[in-house]
## 1
Amino acid sequence: MKSCVIVFPGSNCDRDVAVAIEASSGTAPLMVWHGETALPACDLIVLPGGFSYGDYLRSGAMAARAPIMRAVLAKAASGTPVLGLCNGFQIMTEAGMLPGALMRNAGLKFICRDVFLKVENTDNIFNRRYASGQVVRFPISHHDGNYFTDAATLDRLESTGRIAFRYCAPDGAVNASANPNGSLNNIAGILNAAGNVLGMMPHPERLIAPELGGSDGRAMFDALASLLQCA
Amino acid sequence: MRVSVTPEIVAAHGLKPDEYAHILRVLNREPNLTELGIFSAMWNEHCSYKSSRVWLRTMPTTGPQVVCGPGENAGVVDIGDGQVAIFKMESHNHPSFIEPYQGAATGVGGIMRDVFTMGARPVANLNALRFGAPDHARTRHLVYGVVAGIGGYGNCIGVPTVGGEVNFDAGYNGNILVNAMCIGIADASKVFYSTASGIGNPVVYVGSKTGRDGIHGASMASAEFDENSEEKRPTVQVGDPFTEKLLLEACLELMAGDAVIAIQDMGAAGLTCSAVEMASKGGLGLLLDLDKVPCREAGMTAYEMMLSESQERMLMVLHPDRTDAARAIFERWELDFAIVGETTDTGRFIIRHQGETVADLPVDVLAEQAPVYQRPWTPTPPAPYLPAKEIPDTDDLGATLARLMGGPHLASRRWIWEQYDHMVMGDTIQRPGGDAAVVRVHNSRKGIAATTDVTPRYCAAAPKEGGKQAIAEAFRNLCAVGAKPLAVTDCLNFGNPERPEIMGQFVGCIEGISEACIALDMPIVSGNVSLYNETSGVAIPPTPAIGAIGLLADVDKMATVAFKQDGDEIFVIGETQGHLGQSLYAREIAGRKDGAPPPVDLAAERRNGDFIRSQIIAGNVAAAHDISDGGLLVAIAEMALAGGLGCMLSLPRNAGPRHGFLFGEDQARYIACVSPQKAQAMIAAAQEKNVPVTRFGSVAGRDIVLDGKLVHSVAGLRSAHENWFPAYMEG
């Protein structure tokens, strides 16, 4: 598998996701500097977590205008899978790759902890190794993860199966007490209309082995690796 | 600008009349204002260690594992396979009290720079925090700001904050303590030091621009507070973690090559201290041209530039033919890079600004002839032993346990550590909440365990025993996860050293720390001293915070505190005498603050610690926990909460007074959970090593039960334990 991880100034989960990709695919991704203007032919692009440009101004706002983003948008439009994790999700909404916005957490504090997620849409290349309705445990680690969008867009996301993950209780119940940041409809991750772009606040790359406290994230990278190797 | 130096100006710079007389003598003339500022920056307590130096020299700092001890930016220890761990803890107390968010944030930024200045990638942050009484008017605001500041900086730069400790005590009402620790990993062949060499080599400034923030920060940190301390807010620096992340990556990229001769971060006393230290260590002179220094605003004077403590800056001496390549790296990271001077053979620190020489001072006088004081001291009067029989037992064990577990001393710190990214970098093997945090050395099976410890109430009652105990507890926390303790960094927080009774606390603690470090094979490799932690004449409790690291050969051979499964047998390792003096039970439940703290038997610490570690590595231990604050029953409760399992306990026949056994804080003890199949092997090994082992019960059910009677449900205890902090902060 050939994959690219975009490195913005202030990205800090770029190495973590590179480790996860290599663990599943056997091949280290190419780390692409934000100032580049072209991407090589590749099967997967990752916008990693972190604090691009310090999250000054607005999380993801400046990175969304980095030179490399024009190439990322073009690849996404032509169907290349693009995964945005945490700050990567924020960059995607700022760049218009996904609808909505990630506002400050409802509790106004940074939160780092494991959360439970209900896998909703599994008919996409990221989630195909999960069962629909399966409950997985991933960590979150963000200050601005409160997903918001207008009612019409929310309705469209819901009715067209574009919710990838929802925050839930350990038993899968989706309710307010399982919502760590105030996101609308407990949304933790969404897909674009074509299904090749996934943005999510939780960090699957952080739980890929038992010694790290869990391995629920591994299946996402395994799915990407196997699918892209067949391609 | 020519200002003549008056006694008032000298005093305003924190220099004593005899110190100024010494300056006049060595210069053979009056210093100008810039020069006076430089002397004040170099000779204040924070930079010169003038009150503590004679005592610091007595501490053990060597061992086969030590690559570099105190005197550099951080300590360096060997962790095998051609790798080293580089670590240090430092105080940021005074600024954090004045402006908690920025004070704490820049404390974290500063300690990380100390570590990556030496060539290490930071892999873990910890912190030791002391706040005033929970009901004090400022406490909540300070907790909120300090925690947000630590998180704000560490989260952004992407280094996990994995552990620490927090105390509340009225003794810190006027002076909180914020001690930040950072650990980095480097290749042993790629460690960088601050000794300049060569003549005519370029002195290079990189990082953020210099502004007017933090001027006289180090001098402020060397004075007491009074009711006007709010006015010192402009001396607090402002942090920019994003720039530090860029600086970190650029420095490590540069250090992968061979351009760097010497490097020093600009911390306390900024440009002054970094330049003087590099020149002094190399026995060189140094010429600075301030017109080349990148400045945030126009019109800054030489005095302001030399004393600014703007953050995220480094000073380096480079090989002249590598300068262009170095410049390219920093420009790619969009950081300032400026050649601001050169090394010379004059032995003088010469500063030029706008065509004039604005300072011309001998380097060795600045760096090495700072005054050293043998401060008078009086020993702390010994505290009498407080027998258990003088303290009433509780008639409601469950309520007492819940009160301790749900009070400010022992309540869960989750509210704090969930605001810290403790998982970034993908190597956190043991998260906050256990005895020690464990981070894996990237791309290996090795782990670094880390902990911060000190029990100030012990140090106040008996400084020497308290000093010993701080090291002993750090040792236990490392052993309890299965790590071999390696070395120590210390952050010695005390009051005004000009008062003999404060100096007596300092001396006592140092003696105890030294004795324990030798006995437990944990040399001190770095640290700092923070004195004058006083407001209006009231000093903090003596608080020599200890940061310690240990090594696990294989992170799979690690223990955690959580009860694992029903049926596992619970043993107390070590001897219980029921010592209640200075225990949390005595203070919080019985209201007794007198008495001696528990004595520390270092031979027993060594024996029992080596034993528990060997049992963990042998795979005999299902869970382990050191017994400290709150005693045995509290330790059991913590294990129950972590595992979500209860236990059936029975008091041993020879337990002595029940409250002494359950709540006494005797040292050198652990709880070990062992599966029934392995219990015999563990007991046999203990007998062979002369380690006392007492069976105390077994893991069972969902309640804590003692001698057939319910003490408390685990679920009920959990709400008490988890609710205190959020409820307090929502206040």
## 2
Amino acid sequence: MSNNAVSLYLDPQIRDWVLFPITLVMILVGILRHYVVMLLQTQPKELSRAAVREQRALARSQILRATAGNSPIPRPFYISISQHLSDAFAAGTYLKDGPPKGDNPSPPPNPITDPAAMDGMMSGMKTQMVMMVPQMIIMGWINFFFQGFVLIKLPFPLTLGFKSMLQRGIETPDMDVRWVSSLSWYFLNFFGLNGLYRLILGDDNSADSSRDMTTSPFAGGAAAATNPVQDYNKLFKAEKDNLEFSEGLHNWVGSDVESRVLRKYGKLAPAY
Amino acid sequence: MSLQSALQKLASYRKNNTRASQEIFKEGLIVLKSGGVSKLGDEGWAFLEQLTLSAIDIGRLDIADQCLKQLSEKFPGSPRVDVLTGVRMEATESPSTVLSFYDELLRVNPSNAAIWKRRISVLRRVGKIDKAVEELNEYLDTFYTDVEGWLELADIHSSCNQYHSALQALSHALLLTPQNPFTFLQFAETAYTSGDVPLALKMFLVVIDMNESEDEDTIPLGISVRAWWGTKLCSRQLVSSPSTYTSDSNTPVPKNIKLIDELATERVLTAYSGEQGIQARGLVSKWMSAGR
């Protein structure tokens, strides 16, 4: 259907006054947002000694378990460390608030009432707002002034499936798919500018908005909030079982080192 | 020396954490005099920190104060500058003043690991070993992954002849860096000193086993020479009276201890086969044959 040479002729003014401005505005807004987010970010709160200890206790037993199969330390040393850790986990020595009292497990604290968790949630919401508001404004601006504009012709042919992607806002059944409408150009920029931001602002930028579309502002806040509310007591109890498993796996790297060394120096016949 | 090459050298010292204070100071002074700090941008501050430390190290406190002043003007209240200020105070102030300075910082932020470590080192220096060990234990219970801390604890225990505790501290260090043969060597030597000869023998052999570049035809170098000597010392005792040596850690004496002894003798003698080693070789072989 696009066999006739050029079916449409675009005014060069559209290029100068619509296509370039949309792209430029989106890039500038992205850069601006990067700096606003940087301003909004609050310093992470300092953890107390007990909290650091609680957080790192798990890493401690993971280090021990990771080496169990080929452990650098002899069995008695391994067992003593492992026993010490599992006793401490059972007694809750590493918990921030000391060992739990009584048998009934305390309910996890409500994130709304916990100021530390609330902080995390608020900062998540703030950045999300900075992401959403400018995008809504730009979209409104494009919809208001440039609705139904055809901005550009892609230099390669595409199948009909791309029609809804490239010609949003123009309801014509038989225009060539290569023509891109203003609203679609906006979406193409929206998802495609990340590479450019990375070039301008470095890898760790917060200008890209497309990835925020996958998470709602509240989900983002909640995900950040679940972290401090983790029930370490339960994690420790589970880790205790893991420690017992690893104890069975323990094998000292030095248990048959003499035959390995003797073989290496040709004093003993090779094992194979 | 040109500014460019001085800067390059300093950057590589920083990257490798080398404590070559004399050289750093010499080249740092060139950079400082030529006003290179402002040209360096963000890296300039790291350079100033480096120069301060090395200036304190070699006793040029005037330069250290000069750098420290610039840093504290730029970063007021930064924990890193606080540490530097503390180190500078340690150079001239009395230990009690420094300790109260550290106490104050730790009261504000109890989880500042660097300040905590400095405090422990001051405690050890003034001879309050019991307090230092107590604090170090608490520190390591919180920041488990600090290998340096575990090695320091092992050192303190060894200096008090508490070899069993030293071995326990070293075993944590081994768990954290199972790839470092020097930690294994230290473990082996501590075990030997504590009288656990079979355990020491095994650990010396692990060090040898880790050294993949060495085989029958090469001359042992560096850490291997020490490890082979250790092996020889252990195996000599075990061959002469295998049953009398009990091991605290229940490490069995290897079955082919005779072969290990022969191999160790051979390897130690090989270590003394070079140009320089040849004079000492006679002494070594005399020692080898005398011990039996």
